[in-house]
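Researcher: Please predict.
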Amino acid sequence: MGAKADFAESGGSGAGTLDFSGRLALSDLGDLPDRLDAYQGDVERLDLSAVERIDTIGAWVVHRFAKARGASIEGLSPDGAHLLEQVAASDQSVSVRPHYVSPLTRVLGEVGDAVVIAFQTLYGLLGFLGATVIALGTVIRHPSKFRFNATVQRFEVVGVSALGIIALMSFLIGIVIAQQGAVQLRQFGAEAFTINLVGRLTLRELGVLMTAIMVAGRSGSAFAAQLGTMKLTEEVDAMRTIGVSPMEALVLPRVMAATLLMPLLGFYASIISILGGMFLCWASLGIPPETFVQRIREVVPITDLFVGLVKAPVFGAIIGIAGCFQGMQVEGDAEQVGSRTTSAVVQAIFLVIVLDAFFAVFFTWIGWI
């Protein structure tokens, strides 16, 4: 056991100096805090070179006394000085109510934070895209690393299991397009052009776009949730420990499945939408299916199909990368799984719509209109 904590006026030439000794720890402080409070002399310096040990409570007692008297503290070991710095840094007044911030300042601050986060996320997505391309190159050079079973299983989850909901959504979209188009075109006596509207709009835009939104909400969220849960349970770290690349084993099969199946799902959705439009034209406008199909073949150029098929794999890659990227960013607690899943869906849909606008301008520029 060390000596109890104590202090005394310096016997040297240093006026206003208190020499501390013993152990400045909770179990050895005794009445030292009360004696310090009762001390009446002037103090300019506290010498702690003879202190054997100091803990957080002892550091707080010394800091409070030195702060009240305006005295400097000397003689502590590096560890003791660091502890005293931490105690001093935590000695901050806490306001019961937050400081008033004008609504304009708060709104501008939130907008600025959102912009910074958006650019940071875009930067992270670009880096993740590069890592995915590197993983793909590694698999191409070493085909034995390709996870065939995992990729086929993702094909089933992304594609086969989604056929029902995509068919229902696309059929109803075709009906809505035909109904709204017929109502507007009837004012000009041009109901027959409803077929043109349904054929071109579904093959060129809405078939692929709505399918991408559905896949982002269904599969992109699943990717983020699955990888986020694996991050929390440290399965991803375990894979790295045993020498398995998470990019090759987890990310690449999901991105490949979304990329390869989006053209098929987009074409499937476009056909179902045309069937929905044909049903409405038959039931409401009296146009028989044979006439509808013949008219579709005449008015819809093959370039409309090419436009949809070119956009589809890009949309699929964006959805897969956004979902996997957000899932791999999960850290800390289960709450982040939910927030990252939401972010994956929002970012995927946003990027799909932005890219669709760029594609529209590009295809118009090259004459595919």
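Model: The chain has a mean pLDDT of 89.
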